[in-house]
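Morning F.,

Quick status update on the modeling queue. The single chain you submitted on Monday has been processed. Sequence for confirmation:
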Amino acid sequence: MRKAAVSTTANIAEGYGKQSLVENRRFCRISRGSALELRDHLTTAYDEKYVTSRVWKELDLELISLGQMLSAYIRSMTKNVTATQARGRNTR
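Structure tokens below.
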């Protein structure tokens, strides 16, 4: 769970540091995958009774929110990449 949690934020930072919309978008997609991996681990922890229902619900909502924010950010970058390509500029 720690590895997936750290990977989620690390990939956001790494993508941002690439200073390329295409690369940033790719790393945000990887980050979203790590967040989903973390949700799966959290559900398993709940199923095995390592976390309470209250904790599971709270953290699950946070991870859903994170996934939604990442999806919106990725959509925004996709629009920017498409607009830039339409103007004939290099997005790399």
